[in-house]
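Render this sequence as a predicted structure.
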Amino acid sequence: MNIVEDIYKKLDVLNDGPLNLSDKTIDEFGESIKEVIKSWATPQQKDNKFYLRMSNIGKPARRLWFDKKTELENKRLEPSLFIKFLYGHLLEEVILLLVRLSGHKVTDEQKEIEIEGIKGHMDCKIDDVVVDVKSASGFSFSKFRQGILREDDPFGYIAQLTAYEEAEGTTDSGFLVINKETGELCFHQPDELDKPNIKNHIKDLKKKLDLETPPELCYAPIAEGKAGNMRIAKNCMYCPHKKECFKDSNNGKGLRAFRYAKGLTYFTTVKSEPKVDEVYEW
């Protein structure tokens, strides 16, 4: 799919002149933006009850096991994060406008799908291909552009996309992504070998969530230095369950946190005391 190239060609206004948007196109885009703002302005309070949904089926089973077993309090949404949600949704509508302007067909927006009893809403199809539209930071964008999302996919985007594709009975699904920092676009289609057998994946996930003890670690600890110290992986840093998840580390004492210039580092094994302050309340 040459969608990005087609969009860039359409936007080459210095060579081709004005875009000549029709009033109908502008009005339809305006209505889409209005719906985004209405939805953003009336957020729904989330309950604490855990359930599987399309947006989490690709996350590690251990993380989901703790989500299910733990009732997390509804945390206050920071104003900056609230703003981030808004411009993320607005950018996604801008992408779809550009797709239409470049001559591609957009259908099935927010279509509800269901697979193995789990419901979700796909973003859209472009030219009958299932597409997940995303806005990303420069770092995240590079994973899509370089085709290495499979190597670091903590939110389970590939599994989610695969579920939409399976429900629709299509192939060649992909991610249409905009870099929020530069405006660059890319279209990434995961290799078939990177996609899980989504029905088997969901069945296996449900079994693991019913276990009495947590499944295997999401990410193995990583060596820190050459003295034998081990720390938790990057994707564990912001997990709300890390203290409980690693409670048996350090010979049963649990995680130990040390304050480095780059921030806190959490150790599962300390054989050589770091030469920075240890933090006891975190």
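Summary. The chain has two domains: 3-204, 222-279. The chain has a mean pLDDT of 93.
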